[in-house]
């Protein structure tokens, strides 16, 4: 794969960054080499003993442009053949401009670009460094998240903590846009009038008793809620910069690792402490067992995340055991490791280092 440099074009990424993104994205293909070149493409092809150049064409404008490039190349008399390759109709809308525009509006771009490129675009366009945090119920995800938020504020690191559960609560309750009212009506229609509050919103306690005792009903609820949660998450992300933590117990189960580019804090706890915490929330033994059965266990969650990372050749898991409430130093160390991995916030890193010393 050859990446050219057009001196008339104002690139968003440096040549080094473009090479890095290409190399990481094509890492799984052992027979693909990524290089850069300056000057005419036909000269590059000639020097590398390449006889044929394949050019992608999406539309009429591309065709006219490529025709000019072809004729210019032919004029160099190097006997390099150029073959047009027409894009499938379902792909003709894909372009770097389209992807950048979608990202500016916090749209989903993981189906347009590899996950590492998505991460780079979020950083470059939106100034966002997104990390997930997940684990079973009662392991201490919210405690870790809140501690990280406090320490980040103390260290002058811009940090935002978004809990997908809270977004779901808003959809079931306070949001009054027409679509969310329709979703509430759909839930009432499917699960029965007993889940309906007097104002038409959803009684989450009653709904919870129903879905956590029947896995099919829980899956149905997750299907209903998936799209509205993603839409509201986009609203939450809008204009936020810095490190953004997305907290959800179901990142693995619902295939949402793409939201955080496979970069995930995985929180675990010993079973005794987990049950004690759930009992403190006044769950009965039956409710505890139902909730634990409704999710993957720790090994299943972690395995699915690691398989995704391996498949997409990008991502990282930070594992933290919260069997004993972590000290401030433990959380600072975790935040420092994440900051270092992200490679940004040099001044904030200095602040964190000074506070750790």
Summary tags:
Rossmann fold; two-stranded parallel ribbon; 5-stranded parallel beta sheet; elongated; 357 residues; 9 strands; 15 helices; alpha/beta
Description:
Helix 7 crosses helix 10 (215-237), helix 8 runs antiparallel to helix 10 and helix 14 runs antiparallel to helix 15 (346-356). The protein has helices at 15-25, 41-47, 60-74, 96-104, 115-126, 141-154, 164-172, 178-191, 204-211, 215-237, 271-280, 285-293, 298-312, 328-342, 346-356, and strands at residues 2-5, 35-38, 52-57, 81-86, 128-134, 159-163, 242-247, 263-268, 316-321. It is of the alpha/beta class and 357 residues long.
Largest sheet data: 5 strands, parallel
Compute the separation of the termini in Å: 46 Å
- Taken from the alpha-carbon principal axes, the silhouette is elongated
What would CATH call the architecture of the largest domain? 3-Layer(aba) Sandwich
Strand order of the largest sheet: 6-7-5-8-9
Radius of gyration: 25 Å
Layout of secondary structure:
Elements: E1 2-5, H1 15-25, E2 35-38, H2 41-47, E3 52-57, H3 60-74, E4 81-86, H4 96-104, H5 115-126, E5 128-134, H6 141-154, E6 159-163, H7 164-172, H8 178-191, H9 204-211, H10 215-237, E7 242-247, E8 263-268, H11 271-280, H12 285-293, H13 298-312, E9 316-321, H14 328-342, H15 346-356
Parallel strand pairs: 1-2, 3-4, 5-7, 5-8, 6-7, 8-9
Helix pairs in contact: 1-5, 6-14, 7-10, 8-10, 14-15
């Amino acid at each position: 794969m050859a990446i050219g440099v057009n001196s008339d074009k104002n690139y968003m990424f440096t040549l080094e960054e473009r090479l890095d993104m290409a190399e990481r994205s094509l890492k799984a293909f052992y027979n693909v080499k990524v290089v850069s070149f300056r000057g005419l493409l036909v000269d590059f092809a000639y020097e590398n003993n390449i006889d044929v150049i394949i050019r992608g064409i999406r539309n009429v404008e591309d065709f006219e442009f490529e025709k000019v490039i072809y004729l210019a190349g032919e004029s160099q008399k190097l006997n390099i053949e150029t073959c047009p390759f027409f894009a499938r109709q379902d792909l003709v809308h894909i372009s770097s401009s389209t992807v950048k525009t979608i990202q500016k509006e916090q749209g989903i771009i993981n189906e347009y670009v590899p996950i590492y490129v998505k991460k780079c675009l979020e950083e470059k366009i939106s100034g966002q460094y997104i990390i997930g945090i997940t684990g079973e119920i009662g392991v201490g995800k919210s405690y870790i998240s809140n501690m990280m938020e406090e320490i980040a504020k103390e260290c002058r690191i811009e940090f935002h903590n978004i809990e997908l559960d809270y977004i779901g609560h808003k959809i079931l309750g306070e949001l009054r846009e027409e679509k969310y009212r329709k979703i509430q009506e759909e839930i009432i229609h499917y699960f029965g009038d007993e889940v309906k509050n007097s104002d038409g919103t959803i009684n989450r306690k009653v709904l919870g008793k129903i879905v956590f005792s029947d896995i099919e009903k829980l899956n149905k609820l997750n299907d209903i809620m998936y799209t509205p949660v993603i839409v509201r998450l986009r609203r939450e992300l809008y204009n936020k910069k810095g490190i953004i933590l997305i907290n959800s117990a179901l990142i693995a189960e619902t295939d949402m690792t793409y939201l955080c580019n496979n970069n995930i804090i995985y929180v675990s706890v010993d079973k005794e402490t987990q049950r004690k915490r759930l009992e403190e929330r006044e769950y009965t033994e039956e409710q505890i067992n139902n909730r634990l059965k409704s999710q993957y266990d720790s090994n299943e969650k972690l395995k699915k995340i690691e398989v995704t990372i391996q498949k997409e050749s990008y991502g990282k898991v930070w594992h933290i055991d919260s069997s004993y409430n972590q000290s401030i130093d433990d959380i600072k160390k975790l935040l420092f490791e994440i900051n270092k991995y992200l490679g940004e916030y040099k001044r904030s890193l200095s602040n964190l280092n000074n506070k750790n010393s």
